[in-house]
Every structure is written in structure tokens, then in C-alpha cells.
């Protein structure tokens, strides 16, 4: 893996601006925001959707077929502050095959069939930068729902969001404890986040106009609940293996089980 030499935060700030097509990072001079400790999402279901009004549900299992690829070790020695925060090696999250033969970090959502409008929750989704790592790696959020982005590290981070439909942004957060809030106005699957300062950092968000989504966990499971009765197209998206779709019909109070299988390449 290509490594960059660690340079001072001031020099890095200049590099960030140049590396983003000359766009000036926003909030670069912002003062730290005093808030309560950000919600820890390492063990929480990423992209958990709020409750909806229907009574049907779909339980999704994402399976993996073939030999699991070898885990990639992330080298963080370019920034000593990052390196010092990890007692053991950090593994890439782009392909995580669980012990039961399922696949983690798959964004599962209703792609077609949703009717009506679903106002955005006022409760924000939190994207943390902890140990020079984005948490969660994959998450869902509704259009116009607040996204709080928090720097938990005593080093410079920048959050370079690269949507193709929504407005991109590039925010510098040089001070530990800084928080920035953003919203996405339009549905988009998926929006990529990266850090120009620490190139191993990346995350993805599925932006939807409704709350019917989930992310597969360490058992390969994702639940979509609160669905009105109807026929829906579900899509399962993975950053390496692409997307798969299938149709499911549910009645009032009914719970269906659906399986997606991704194969080793």
C-alpha cells in the first residue's frame, strides 16, 4: 500500500486544499465545539433506521460464497498519533467475511415500491473519526437528516464527501472535539467519504428518502421493519462486490426472510 510521509498539520492543510481540486476546506478555522461525548458506534448497528408506520418486516441475511480474501492490514505509521492509538493492527473493512460465512457491511434497502412521504428524523446520525478511522464504515441516513461529523483524535482530519447527486463538501477539523453538521438533500446510494490527510480512511453512506434500510452486522443480518403491506424491490450493496436486487411481497403484520449471496471474485 502506498504510504505518505507525515508532515506538519499546517503543511497538510495546504495539501488538503490542493488535493481537492483547489477547493478551500470549509470550517478550517472553526473553534472546537463543546458537546457531550459523541455516541460510540463501533458496536452499534450502523445505519439503523427509525421506526416507520407499517407492520411488516423483512429479515435479510447476506451470505458469502467461496474463499474469503486475506484481511488487509492498515499501516498508520505515517501519522504517529494514529499509530499510537492502536494496540493491535487495524484490518481493512472493505471485505469482512464473518465466521458463519456471511458478509458484513452490506447496505440493504428498499429500492422501489415505497409510497408516501417520510419526514427526516431530527435525531442526527453520527460519523466519528476515532483512531484515524471512520465509525461506522457503512451507514444509512435519510434526506435532510442531520449528519454530525466528529473528530475524536488529536490530529488533523478532513472529511471529503464525494457525492455525485448531492453537493460535495470538504471540511477540515484540525482540533480534537470539533463537530460539523451537514445534510444531504437528495437520495443517493452511495456517498463516499475519504480523508485526504490519512488516505486509508473511507466510509460510505446510503442516502434515502425513507427509513427502510439496514446494514449487515457481524452475523450477516440486517432488518427492515415498519413496512406497509406491498411489493418491494430490495437491493443489497457492497463496496467491492457491487449490488444485487430481488423482489419481496409482504402483508400486514407479516415477516419475510430474504437471502442475498455474494461470491468471491
Q: At the first level of CATH, what is the class?
A: Mainly Beta
Major sheet characteristics: 5 strands, mixed
| Share of helix, binned | under 10%
Total tally of structural domains: 1
Record field, number of beta strands? 18
Runs with pLDDT <50, length 5+? 1-51
> How widely separated are the two ends?
20 Å
- Helix and strand sequence: HEEHEEEEEEEEEEEEEEEE
The tally of helices reads 2
- Rg: 19 Å
CATH fold topology: Immunoglobulin-like
Instruction: Write out the CATH superfamily name.
Output: Cupredoxins -  blue copper proteins
Strand order in the largest sheet = 7-13-12-9-10
The class by helix and strand makeup works out as mainly beta
Mean pLDDT: 85
Q: Which architecture per CATH?
A: Sandwich
Written overview of the protein:
The chain is mainly beta and 265 residues long. It contains two helices and 18 strands. The protein has a five-stranded mixed beta sheet with strand order 7-13-12-9-10, with no helix packed on it. A four-stranded antiparallel beta sheet has the order 14-4-16-17, with no helix packed on it. Strands 6-5-8-11 form a four-stranded mixed beta sheet, with no helix packed on it. The longest helix is centred in the first third of the chain and has 11 residues.
Amino acid at each position: 500500500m502506498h504510504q505518505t510521509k507525515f508532515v506538519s498539520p499546517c503543511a497538510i492543510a495546504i495539501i488538503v486544499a490542493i488535493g481537492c481540486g483547489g477547493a478551500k476546506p470549509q470550517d478550517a478555522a472553526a473553534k472546537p465545539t463543546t458537546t457531550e461525548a459523541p455516541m460510540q458506534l463501533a458496536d452499534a448497528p450502523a445505519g439503523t433506521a427509525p421506526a416507520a408506520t407499517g407492520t411488516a418486516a423483512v429479515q435479510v441475511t447476506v451470505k458469502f460464497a467461496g474463499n474469503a480474501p486475506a484481511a488487509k492490514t492498515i499501516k498508520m505509521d505515517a501519522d504517529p498519533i494514529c499509530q499510537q492509538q492502536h494496540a493491535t493492527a487495524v484490518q481493512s473493512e472493505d471485505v469482512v467475511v464473518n465466521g458463519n460465512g456471511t458478509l458484513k457491511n452490506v447496505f440493504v434497502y428498499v429500492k422501489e415500491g415505497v409510497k408516501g412521504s417520510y419526514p427526516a428524523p431530527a435525531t442526527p446520525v453520527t460519523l466519528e473519526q476515532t483512531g484515524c478511522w471512520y465509525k461506522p464504515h457503512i451507514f444509512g441516513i435519510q434526506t435532510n437528516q442531520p449528519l454530525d461529523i466528529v473528530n475524536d483524535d488529536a490530529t488533523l482530519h478532513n472529511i471529503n464527501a464525494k457525492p455525485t447527486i448531492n453537493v460535495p463538501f470538504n471540511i477540515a477539523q484540525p482540533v480534537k472535539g470539533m463537530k460539523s453538521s451537514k445534510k444531504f438533500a437528495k437520495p443517493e446510494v452511495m456517498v463516499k467519504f475519504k480523508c485526504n490527510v490519512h488516505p486509508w480512511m473511507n466510509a460510505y453512506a446510503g442516502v434515502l428518502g425513507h427509513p427502510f434500510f439496514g446494514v449487515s452486522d457481524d452475523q450477516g443480518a440486517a432488518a427492515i421493519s415498519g413496512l406497509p403491506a406491498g411489493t418491494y424491490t430490495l437491493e443489497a450493496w457492497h463496496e467491492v462486490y457491487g449490488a444485487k436486487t430481488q423482489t419481496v411481497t409482504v402483508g400486514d403484520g407479516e415477516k419475510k426472510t430474504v437471502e442475498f449471496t455474494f461470491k468471491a471474485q
